Amino acid sequence: MRLLGLPRSGPDAMAREAAWMARCVGRGEWAPLFDDDIDELGQRLERVHFEPGALVFAQGAGSEAVWVFRSGRVELSRRDGNRRLIVQIVHPGDVDGDIGLILQMPLPYSAHAIDDVEALRLSAEDFEWLIGTRPALARRWLSSVAARLMTAERRILQLAGRDLKTQLANLLLDEEREDSVALPQESLAALLGVRRPSLNKVLRDLQRAGVVRLSYRCVDIVDRRALVRTAGRATD
Q: Which domains are delineated in the chain?
């Protein structure tokens, strides 16, 4: 981990970072922020860089900060004995660490950088102070937590009782960026809790059907409408 300091340090730069972070944590129309809210947030942010493979935080540790990821992807995974389960792939704009702070519970998973990652860090002390003294920020953060819980619930419902092809189609649609999922098959299998050979068979079936194209550590979506139908989602 390397502290970078905010780019072109100064009040304007800090305010820009704080405004970007505020957009990531909830609905602005439901909880509009005032200029002094943005200023207070900006004064408390740290910008941190992680190289690929670096540990962001460890499973079982106490949550010491809130993280909003500025660029790059982060893998959230947990160990259960000798088994490793990938819980989620975090993308730019995603938030983590706040629920553990609110509930005062240990972190349920570890986070490792997949790419070069830049993140905004808000310490536990500053987070608690802001939530306790800035009602607009607290309301904005509440909407963020609720939205993330709804997303997690939707994902569980999409996967529950579905066959592997349907589960995989939903996962690819959730993880794609510009019609490409830049993850190795090992990670996709771990996200679904299945063995890699089983996943590979389904991927090759989809490739033969012209739905996806496989390459090294990447799955490209060729026929989005067919993939949406396979996932059981409504098409336009």
A: 2-157 (2.60.120.10), 163-231 (1.10.10.10)
